[in-house]
Structure formats: structure tokens, C-alpha cells
Amino acid sequence: MRAAVLHETGQDKLEVHDDVEAVGFGPGKVKIRVRATGLCHSDVSAMNGTLPQPAPFVPGHEGAGEIVDVGDGVTGLSAGDRVLVCWLPACGVCPSCKRGQSQLCLAGFMNAGVPNFKRPGGDVFGFAGTGTFVEEVVVDAGCAVPIPEDVPFDIAALIGCGVTTGLGAAVNTAKVEPGSSVAVIGCGGVGISAIQGARLMGAAQIVAVDPVASRREAALGFGATEAVAPDALGDAKQRITAGEGFDYVFEVVGKSATARTAYETTRRGGTLCIVGAGAMDDNLQLNMFELFFDEKRILPSMYGGGDVLRSYERAIALWRAGRIDLASLITHRVPLADVNEALDQMRTGVALRTCIEI
After folding, report:
1. For the chain, which has fewer Cβ within 10 Å, the N-terminal or C-terminal residue?
2. pLDDT tens digit string along 30-62?
3. Residues pairing with 145 in the sheet
């Protein structure tokens, strides 16, 4: 079968091969025929080494499709079921799950070092224990979440990561208050979802911050009250908050430099929400006096900061009700054979989300 493979960390292009085989099918597993997958910035971060991932590997973790087969012991799922791929399934029994913080469950990460595929040359891993830039993938049954018939595969794929992450950051983690002021730094698919979440929660001012003009323009259509380039953020802070700073600032880039800017843009007593996934050696500099004196809350948000299954259901309900716009997040579509075109679209910033149709 066909799959897009990164052979060595640091390469900027994927190779599409037709000799890849999904492996590992057996008890507790399901095989999924992938129909649509989104390109998330985390895939690019894994490719360039920002996020740890053994190579060679198949990128992709934001996917949806149909179950082809189920292994022994799997209940509640059958061949033909329409599902989205959950790259961080909860085990239900670890301390994090028992505390109600299933988004911090590490069970799913244990699969990242186990090959999901093989080629004649050897084993191939799947990014984040999944790997959806492929025609078929074998995953734990907990990674396959049934979706209603009225939810298209492309919409379901977005809910599998980007929408849940951004929406949840505003709703679950930051708990944006009505009438508040918000700034969102980084307006790709996740940042736009955070903007939509802030709008849902009743924020009065939502400033979208991005260096790409087309993304700034798009953000206005998703609920931002204004959109500025990074070098104009200071002016926006002065105009909108009289220099005090925003009640909530979301950093959706994953770099210490933008996180520092976000901290400085947050008012005293306000909330900085870290959404972007960054590198382990990229350190954020804060001094002990400002931490004490400013009393700013710094809240990282992992996968939307809440129970992912509940978050999926909420996103579907809001989409059905017309309260969030998911279709417009997909600005580009490419077949699997043109996956490198999708990478270029992300790197240049012209795409909010590219759907790879398989």
C-alpha cells in the first residue's frame, strides 16, 4: 500500500512508496482505511527534530476513515464503522486518568517507539504511535473513535487534533471569561480554533497575531475583532488595554521567543496559555521577581486540556449548531501523491489546514 515516509530526521521532503505494509494487527487492535488526514504543524516539527520521533516514520496523526478489521477482544467497534484517529487515547486506569486528567495519560506515547509499518528495507514507525499519511494503519482500539454518519471524514480529521487542541485551550484550560480581552499569537488551524473558542466563551476583544497577511484576514472571519502583524502587537496592547495587557494570551507557535512576548503582553493577574509544542532545548526565561510580582497564570494546554472524547462530542455538537466553522479551516486539498505540496503550503503559511485525501 502507499504511504508517505520520512527516512531521516531533518529531511524536508517525504517520499511516497507503494511497498509499505501495516503491521501489529491482533488482539486489542483495529485496522483503519484512512480517508482524510490533516497536516498539523506537529508533523513538521517531528520531521525537523523539534519533537522526538524515531525515523524512518510515517507522519500524520490527524486522520479519519473506516475500520477494515478488528482484533480479538475488541468491543464496540466493527468493520465498516466510521472513526477518527485519537493519537492520545486514555487508558482509564493510570493516576492521570483517575484524577480526571486523561489528556495527560502516557499510555498512547508508549506506542511511539513501536513500529506501525514495514518496508522491504526494515521497520517504519508511525508518528505519535499512529501515522496517517497512509492508506491503512493498525492502532490500538482506543485510538479509533466512532463518528456520526453526518460528520465528513475531513471534518472528523480536524477534530482529531487541531480543533480539539485550540478550542479546548480557550474553553477547558484558560476558561475565558465573557467580556474579556484576548490575543492569539499564531493563527494556523490551532490558533484559529482558539479564536473560535474565545468567541464562544464571550470574549469582547480578540486580537489575532500572525506574520502572514492571508492568515490575519482569515482570522477576522472566525471571530477575531482585529488582526495584526507581530510588530504591531505592542500598539494593539496600548490601544485596546491602555497598556495594561490582555486578560488572556494564547501562544500557539511553540517557541520561547513568542512565549516571552506573550508573557509581556499579558496583564498582571492575567492568563498566559501555552498551546504550541516546542523543542526540549528551547527554554523560556522568566525571573523570580516577575513571577511573584506580576501574578500571571501560566497554563500549558495539552491536547485541549480536557477529556478528549468529551471534547470531540462538544466540537461535533457546536459544528452541527453552526457555532463553530470547521469547513472553512480547510483551505487546501491535495492527494497523498502531492503531500510535499501540503508541506510547502504549511511552511509558507498560505494554508490554515491542508486536507490530504487518500
Report:
1. N
2. 999 999 999 999 999 999 999 999 999 999 999
3. 84
Distances (CA, A) of 54 to 7, 106, 110, 132, 336: 10, 17, 12, 16, 22
CA–CA separation, 3 and 20 (whole Å): 6
310, 339, 303, 258: which is closest to 161 by C-alpha? 303
CA gap 267, 241 in Å, rounded: 9
Report pLDDT for 108.
76
DSSP for residue 170: I
- Distance, CA of 29 to chain centre: 24
Which 8-state DSSP code applies to residue 6?
A: B
Torsion of CA 330, 334, 339, 341, to 10 degrees: -80
Neighbour count for residue 126 (Cβ, 10 Å) = 30
From the number of C-beta atoms within 10 Å of its C-beta (0-12, 13-18, 19+), residue 9 rates as middle
Between the alpha carbon of residue 288 and those of residues 248, 252, 281, 293, 295, the distances in Å are 21, 24, 20, 9, 11
Going from the C-alpha of 205 to that of each of 224, 225, 275, 333, 341, the distances in angstroms are 7, 6, 20, 32, 35
How many other C-beta atoms are found inside a 10 Å radius of the C-beta of residue 309? Answer: 15
* Number of neighbouring beta carbons within 10 Å of residue 85: 27
pLDDT digits (tens, 9 = 90+) for 154-187: 999 999 999 999 999 999 999 999 999 999 999 9
User: How many whole angstroms separate alpha carbon 201 and alpha carbon 195?
Assistant: 10
- Residue 187: all three cell numbers together: 493563527
176: left (phi over 0), alpha (psi -120 to 50) or beta: beta
H/E stretch holding 196 reads: helix 189-200
> Which of 341, 317, 344, 332 is closest to 36 using CA atoms?
332
Closest CA to 95 of 108, 109, 111, 106: 106
- Residue 200 three-state SS: helix
Q: Which residues of the chain, if any, have pLDDT below 50?
A: none
Determine the length of the chain.
Answer: 358
